[in-house]
Specification:
The chain is mainly alpha-helical. Helices cover 82% and strands 0% of the residues. The protein has one domain (13-235).
């Protein structure tokens, strides 16, 4: 499947054409996000039920290498998105989804399939509702961006600290706080994607629209994954 903006991006566009083209582009953003999620789930299930699980989780260096590779890929894709060809951006996004599936396969070993399914359905429902809010809300949410970033940094620091403290109260604080934080980020990111795509679309910048669409899919994918992992921690019972 090839991601590309419609040829009608060339100016001038009427208001009706702009709205129709934008709606089609947003559907593609959600489509690529969904493809990434299904790819991650498929890879995770395959790895968990094959000998690859022993290879990955029996070798801490390999597992850490996969994790660092994911991190480097996200940073590289985000930083270079404006210079990449749309097809390259898509390939990197799908590669990230595969790597993330390999590292996330541990959840199939740690939790029951029932708990994983319940967490996924809960996440999908919550994410859809919050993204709907972000898509249609008229309030400018850009002013909250700095606070959300600070909250994200605080969550990362608290999570790292708790790796050493192993504090149950702190674990629950980061779980509930993390869910609320990523709910806010889902709303914020959806509105930001909408505004960025609208601006590029109005300018007739077809390549930029395609690249930003992939970056938007990656952003929403990450929001979904983080909400899912936190809800799984909240609802799931470890084996």
């Amino acid at each position: 499947m090839k991601y590309q903006a419609q040829s009608s991006l060339a100016l001038p566009l009427t208001e009706v054409q702009l709205g129709e083209t934008f709606a089609a582009l947003m559907r593609r953003v959600y489509l690529w996000m969904a493809i990434g999620l299904y790819l991650t789930a498929g890879v995770a299930f395959f790895v968990a039920n094959s000998s690859l699980a022993l290879v990955i989780f029996g070798n801490p260096i390999l597992y850490i290498g996969l994790f660092l590779g994911e991190l480097a890929l996200v940073i590289a894709l985000s930083a270079a998105i404006h210079r990449l060809a749309p097809t390259t951006a898509i390939a990197l996004f799908l590669l990230y989804a595969v790597l993330n599936g390999a590292t996330m396969s541990v959840i199939f070993l740690a939790y029951t399939l029932t708990d994983i399914t319940l967490a996924f359905v809960s996440t999908a429902t919550l994410f859809a509702a919050m993204s709907f809010v972000g898509y249609f809300v008229r309030l400018d949410l850009s002013r909250f961006g700095a606070y959300l970033i600070m909250g994200l940094l605080g969550l990362v620091i608290a999570t790292l600290v708790n790796l050493f403290l192993a504090s149950t109260p702190l674990m629950w604080i980061t779980t509930y706080g993390g869910i609320l934080l990523f709910i806010g980020l889902t709303i914020f990111d959806t509105q930001r994607i909408k505004r960025n795509l609208t601006a590029r679309l109005a300018a007739g910048d077809e390549a930029a629209v395609s690249r930003l669409g992939v970056l938007g899919a990656l952003t929403l994918y990450l929001d979904f994954i983080n909400i899912f992992l936190l809800i799984l921690r909240l609802l799931g019972r470890r084996r």
